[in-house]
Amino acid sequence: MSGVATRIEELLKHPEVKRMTSNINSELLERRAYNPPICRVFESPYTRLKEDDRYRFTIHPETIKRLGRIIKNTVQKIQGAGAPEEQIPQEYTKRRNIGIVFSGGPAPGGHNVIAGLYDAAKKANPETKLFGFILGPDGIIENEVIEITGDMVDQYRNLGGFTMIKTGRTKIDTEKKMDLSKKTCKELGLDALVIVGGDDSNTNAAFLAEEMYDDKIQIIGVPKTIDGDIQVRDADGRVLCAMSFGFHTAARAFAKEVSNLCTDGSSDVKYWHICKVMGRVASHLALEVALQTHANITLIGEDLAEYVDKERIEKARLEGTTDYTAYGMTLRHLSRVICDCIVRRALAGKNYGVIVIPEGVLEFINEIQVFIIKLNAIIAEYNNTHDTDFHSDFPYLEDKLEYLRRQARRSREDPSFTIWNTRDDELFNDLPEFFQEGLLTERDSHGNFQFSKVETDKVLMGLVKDYLNYLKEEGVYKIGISRGYYEKTLRQAGLDPEHYGPVLFKNYTDGQLLIVRPSIISVKTLGQELVKAGILKKEEEIPEAVLKIYNKSVPKFSTQLHFYGYDGRGSDPTRFDCIYSYNLGLTVFSLIANGATGQMAAIKNLEQEFDKWEPIGIPIAPLMHLEERKGRLELVLEKSIVDINSAAYQVVRALRERWLAAEPGPDNYRRPGPIRFTGRSEEDRPITLVLNSLAREHN
Ligand code: FBP
């Protein structure tokens, strides 16, 4: 034993073993050493802001009331300034204290925002200090902060995650939290605070900017989220920010995994791989994954919401009524649409495939959305009227269901209480337990429903399995058998294929892929058909070769469920995200150094070649609208969902049938490969962006 230990000790000292077991590998070194290219304006000695008055916004009156100090902000173009010998304005180079915080889920590129900001700030004045708030907005509220040094920045350049200062989801949404945040900023003597976050966090940035306006503490937001749902257009539809950073990397990371499953699935031809991909509400990630992989089926939530059941509308019209349930897709109907695709592939001999389901798909299923809204209101009402919290008071599902039952009783006694009636309660009780738990799951600190906690794929696949079983019994779900294989198998057994073919198959005369007759749904019915045709005597056994063919035609629906979310979110950024986020960091500093507040740093023309990228500041306040949160209307930044008229969506729609490949022959999968970071084959921007911009050019 001690001999073995000594040998291991010796082995651990070996330089090659040390090198191979070190945390520092060549990929890491290469990433850290990479210098992202910078937009031309940042090569100048300093930058200036120039108001770009071409853009208009439709402003909600509530915003004017609540964000009066920053509502007049306009789009600012960042311009290079200064000749090499020119004196840079003092205001630009003054010593500053800048704070930065990550808010919400991690997104690849966050460290480069810090790096860009750090490099620009130190270049303007080496005495400037950058502070990182730990664990998200809680770090601001509780004054948990570290000074970010050059060594720390170098350690994380071009690396994924928010590891350096971590993140959190707390919202600064009460007077007390606002006061504490202000206190922290003043104690640290901050000139500016940078909030790197999604829609809710940039909403926070606007309110902080308003609150700290008179204290001259500038607040700048940065559009971050893998969901890709921060996209800014003006009232005329002109794109100011096409995509948040982190989206490209997450989409590419998911696409690589999904593509691997396309390869695996089409090799062992026995599984349907069900891939749920993140995106709390919008289906942007699923859309990009579809374009990257050409998976057989990709659901796009926004498309389902638009569904109209024409047959039901017509039926109602003839009856002189209106069927409101005909608008929007139901879960049951969706499961049938999926089954139809599965059956068609099986008939083409392909009882396998890959389905991509966006995490937030339920948001677009009318009946489920109604439950989510009702339950949000019930939970919010409970929390607003009690000192305690709904989830602590009712920790178990049974307690929660009992509370809902009480609400249904309340609706019977008090007609003015309409939020939860007996019908709602009955429908809810029909759902499987795990789904009920999912719908009752705790809302996040912003009052959002947490789709990642619901097993959407399991719910949907449960319905798909049930319906496929029905279709199997109806003789509709079958696997097509190649004619050549059938003939060979029977001949090898000394049987005449021509003799059995017309009895076994419904398309024997002209089918390339033979489909067993719908009436044959078991060995028993197979025997009966053969007897009826006079090929078999009642007491005779079915020939083994015929049985073999029949068994091959019987589909098993075997699924493997996968969830892609946290893994892609933690991935090291693509080259696109490295460059984009680093330039966002540089943009942030330009906005700060030129006195901006209540602005969001952005890069225009992301969809074009790098030399066309334009750093800008977007005013956050005009982007706000009213939305229901925690049971009341709140002013928040509007989320962008997939536009079903966009070129990217329309391309996916047009190629849907080709990617389903419900015909004999090869599938049409695309191999996006892994995120390579360097190298010629590294893709330079999201496909969605390119398609949408090409279409704009075309118009
Ligand atoms: P952000 O909007 O904060 O960037 O987070 C997006 C996201 O990754 C969603 O795709 C996902 O639904 C959610 O976060 C998961 O949240 P959590 O990390 O709290 O499980």
What would a concise description of this structure say?
The chain is α/β, with parallel strands linked by helices and about 700 residues long. The protein has 29 helices and 19 strands.
Helical content band: 40-55%
Radius of gyration: 30 Å
Strand content range: 5-15%
Straight-line N-to-C gap:
76 Å
Bound molecules: 1,6-di-O-phosphono-beta-D-fructofuranose
For this structure, the CATH topology of the largest domain is Rossmann fold
Query: Given the helix and strand composition, which structural class is it?
Result: alpha/beta
If classified by CATH, what would the architecture of the largest domain be? 3-Layer(aba) Sandwich
Query: What's the main sheet like?
Result: 9 strands, mixed
Oligomeric organization of the protein chains = single chain
Please, how many domains? 5
Q: How many DSSP E strands?
A: 19
Detailed description of the structure:
The chain has 699 residues and is of the alpha/beta class. The chain folds into five domains: 1-33, no CATH class; 34-80 and 91-245 and 573-618, Rossmann fold (3-Layer(aba) Sandwich); 250-359 and 455-478 and 556-569 and 638-699, 3-Layer(aba) Sandwich (Rossmann fold); 363-452, no CATH class; 480-554, no CATH class. It has 29 helices and 19 strands. The strands form five sheets. A nine-stranded mixed beta sheet has the order 1-2-17-16-7-6-3-4-5, with helices on both faces. A four-stranded parallel beta sheet has the order 11-12-10-15, sandwiched between helices. Helix 6 (110-124) packs antiparallel against helix 8, helix 15 (331-347) crosses helix 21 (456-473) and helix 18 packs antiparallel against helix 19. The protein is globular and about 105 Å long. The model has no long low-confidence stretch (mean pLDDT 94). 1,6-di-O-phosphono-beta-D-fructofuranose is lined by residues 104-105, 107, 198, 225-227, 278-280, 359, 451-452, 569.
